[in-house]
Amino acid sequence: MSVQIGRVKGVPIRLHFTLLIVFSLVTWSLAANFMPQFFPGLSSAEYWIMGVAGAILLFISVLLHELSHSVLAMRFGIKVRQIMLFIFGGVSDIEEEPKNPQKEFQIAIAGPATSFVLSAIFAGLWAISAAINDVPVFEGIMLYGAIINALLGAFNLLPAFPLDGGRVLRAVLVKRTKRDFDQATDTSVKVGIAISYVMMGLGFVTILTGNGFVSGIWLILIGWFLQSGAQSYRYQHELTAILSKVRMRDIMNISFIAIPPETSLQESLQRYFSVYMKSAFPVTDAAGRLLGMVTLKRVMDSSGDDESKRQVLTVREVMMPLEELNVVSPDTRGDEAVKKMTSSGIGKIFVCDLEGRLLGMVTKTDLLNVVSERQEYSKTVTR
């Protein structure tokens, strides 16, 4: 659950609801602990102002960190879907990973570099305000900005997926050790998982030794985030690697039922939806050319309970047009098909020839079955 707050260079900026939890925790932590410790003697109102300002500064810093990734990716011609800010920071949703190690290194290192530059700027402003010694509220906010950006940059350089350091490590492994992309990814993921277990272990030790319950919980949560992120990335990478070797012609279902465009909605319900129990059908003309797709939801939304309306309206009038569908050639790779499904939100691929004739269809289930079968084959062969 998230909300879009704006766009920067055409990239949507979204806030996840978990951000409210972190904002509240950071504000309270700064107002109740950090600021009174470093700047004693101020009023409660001043501490809370510093807390709120510090929390806002943190998330602006995270946004700038992620924007640096996105801007550089777009400069290399890579599309950025969105930037999401959530409980553990932020993520730039980049459509395609650069296979070139130099480009990946530059995109990955841009975030920490931005954080370190911000830290230096805030440190300079803090030093100036400290010399003036007349604006403790501003001084406290700048000190926090310097510290948190230094920590943000350093933490993201940990060689653990999905952090920037994991991608830096992979780029270095590909460039310096001449490993292929898949081998470098596997090594980087394993290193990330090891680091996640170390952090969770430190969290438990911190709690058990009484050195800070809250700090221990945060270490455990961050370790869990790194571990789950690394495992999720490993699965997605394996899926992409397998599907990149699969062509649509090899897995498409050629036994499909298509509806003529002039079929009435009533007839489509009686002869197709009710008989075959499917939620959608392709629409083709007499020559077999794909025209669109009609869904049960569109039929029901267009006619409701009005049977007379269903007798008059045709499938052509309510179908999803061809331009909105995922139409590919028989030579299209499986990973490219997944990208189309993800970007369109439609879980079907329509395989057509050069004349637009529908040759077959592929669903998400078909692709997942291919991945499962190939993984099972690989496990059996390597035993």
UniProtKB/TrEMBL annotation:
Its cofactor is Zn(2+). It is found in: Cell membrane. One of its GO terms (molecular function) is metallopeptidase activity. It holds the Pfam family CBS. Keywords: CBS domain, Cell membrane, Hydrolase, Membrane, Metal-binding, Metalloprotease, Protease, Repeat, Transmembrane, Transmembrane helix, Zinc. The active site is at residue 66. Binds 1 zinc ion per subunit. Its main location: membrane. The keyword Phosphoprotein does not apply. SUPFAM superfamilies: CBS-domain pair. Gene3D superfamilies: CBS-domain (3.10.580.10). This is Zinc metalloprotease. It comes from Candidatus Nitrososphaera evergladensis SR1.
